[in-house]
Write a structure and sequence with these properties.
alpha+beta; NUDIX_hydrolase_CS; 3-stranded antiparallel beta sheet; Nudix hydrolase domain-containing protein; coenzyme A diphosphatase activity; CoAse; NUDIX_hydrolase_dom; 11 strands
Length: about 240
């Protein structure tokens, strides 16, 4: 893992009240990646998903400290600085919520030997392991949704119409690649983070290429895409309409 360490940064990101800063721990244990399957929770849009241990950065805390704390709270694994390989030099933009950007920092840790996990049953359904040497393109597939953004963000007929008027001009469909792991779907930003890790490890480039080539937001051209994100992120109109 020395090669991986050289591609990472030792810097951390401090708590910032202007954004929702979160942090996750990518734990490599005996050439396996430790993952969690989130507990199903009707109030959590990400419940039931495969993810890395992690959560929000609290006041007087940085992303490294948050990754360690959240990992212990969720799966009972004690991480420390000696396990830390570094942070991916990217603060991932997840989405925009409650007038704030939600960002995700990714810290990578290496643990040798047997790791015993004690899950927090309020947050975690179970711990999953993904062997690095078993990742294969044959387990990849694609989901495609027509007008996906309406179904994700809208909760009423009136809001669907509002979003259709503003967003759906030029929007055709959205598709995302996913990985089949233990009969579960591993997708979204957590899967993209893992692909970045694989790229740094120079592993499974075919899987990485398939993933990034097949993500599609469904805009007929880049101008439409820029218009959408300008409306969504900069003017904040969609967020204010939906969450107010």
């Amino acid at each position: 893992m020395q090669f991986l360490r050289q591609t990472l940064t030792n810097s951390t990101i401090l708590y910032n009240p202007q954004i929702i800063q979160t942090s996750v721990a990518v734990i490599v244990n005996n050439d396996e990646i430790l993952l969690i399957k989130r507990k199903v929770n009707a109030r959590d849009p990400h419940s039931g998903q495969i993810a890395f241990p992690g959560g929000k950065v609290e006041k007087d805390e940085n992303t490294f400290q948050a990754a360690i704390r959240e990992t212990f709270e969720e799966i009972g694994v004690n991480l420390n600085e000696s396990h830390h390989l570094g942070r991916i030099d990217k603060n991932y933009q997840a989405y925009y919520i409650k007038n704030k950007n939600l960002k995700i920092a990714t810290h990578i840790f290496q643990l040798d030997g047997q790791v015993e996990c004690t899950i927090n049953e309020n947050e975690v359904d179970r711990v999953m392991r993904l062997p690095l040497n078993q990742i294969s393109l044959e387990y990849m597939d694609i989901k495609k949704y027509k007008n996906k953004s309406v179904h994700v963000f809208a909760r009423t007929v009136e809001r669907q119409k509002y979003l259709s008027d503003i967003v759906m001009q030029g929007f055709q469909y959205q598709q995302f690649p996913y990985y089949k792991l233990e009969k579960q779907v591993f997708y979204g930003l957590s899967w993209l983070v893992l692909c970045d890790v694989l790229q740094k490890l120079k592993l499974h480039q075919d899987v990485v290429d398939y993933t990034f080539q097949n993500y599609h937001y469904g805009f007929e051209n880049n101008v439409r895409k820029e218009q959408f994100f300008d409306e969504w992120f900069k003017k904040k109109r969609l967020n204010q309409f939906i969450f107010n």
